[in-house]
Amino acid sequence: MNIKKQHHTPRFYLNGFTFIEKKKSLLWVFEKETQKWFKSTPDNIGFIRGFYDVEIEGNKNIVENFYAEVEKRVAPIFRKIIENETLPEDQERAEFLYYITLQALRVPSIRSMMSQSIDLLGKILAERAILNKDVVQHILSDAKEGKYSDISSESVNEMTYEDMVEFVQKKRFKVVPSQSHMVASQIMLSQELYPLLWQRSWSLYVLKNTKTRFITSDNPVTLFWKDEKRNDGRLINSPGFGLRGTEVSFALTPTITIIGDFKGPEQRFDADESIALKLNDRILNSSYRQIYAQEKAFS
Q1: Of 201, 197, 203, which Cα lies nearest the Cα of 223?
Q2: Higher pLDDT, 19 or 236
Q3: pTM value?
């Protein structure tokens, strides 16, 4: 059976941001496109149908099951962090940071940026390819013979070299990577990102003496410069995870957030409203389409 609701923001994680109303666990959702708040259950948000569909030996749930197993292992570690207000060590720390790594990469905002980059690169390569007439004519010949599974021979049957040049120069095409390529790339990138998160010093920030609460989003792992003047608020201009002078933050619950940087000892801090507002602003700027909160954070 194919799993239809494939969560990029896990339900067990979103459960930590819910409140109880009429025996139901709900949370507030802010839709950026409509600028409207609404209530929902974790089951009905944070997913895209078919987001991880990659069929291997007749099974389309391979990737979804992989993420489910990671979530199963890390859920009790989350509970220990929340109960003890301390970060894990040794193997539990490794599993916790591996989850953060995957969470940073499995979201639709990363998929979208990767798709845009591939499309841009494809157009650049196509513009270079049309400079060589022999190469283009060879490609056209193969396409007309049906040697490319993703190009219909009928669509290029009458196309000439000059037609191809015009087609490329006017960018009448879009390079669309396959679902399997995107899913595999997001998982493989974890091998590069995980060591960078492991090298960071992680501190716990616990809200005290304030009614303000941390929020989260469909892109819950944020990366920003520590110097706020260098942040322009656009996700596409986010710095790299390996750069010094940056902070990675992740809200575990409405009252607990972790922050990782490359300097200083790991500590536990009592956080005030100013910290909450700063980190919430980062969440707002890095979110893709939705904000999730225990309370309406703004109007």
Answers
A1: 197
A2: 19
A3: 0.87
Per-residue pLDDT tens over the stretch 236-294: 567 889 999 999 999 999 999 999 999 878 899 999 999 999 999 999 989 999 999 99
Q: Is the dihedral of CA 94, 83, 225, 105 positive or negative?
A: positive
Q: How far apart are CA 27 and CA 128, in angstroms?
A: 50
The amino acid at 219: N
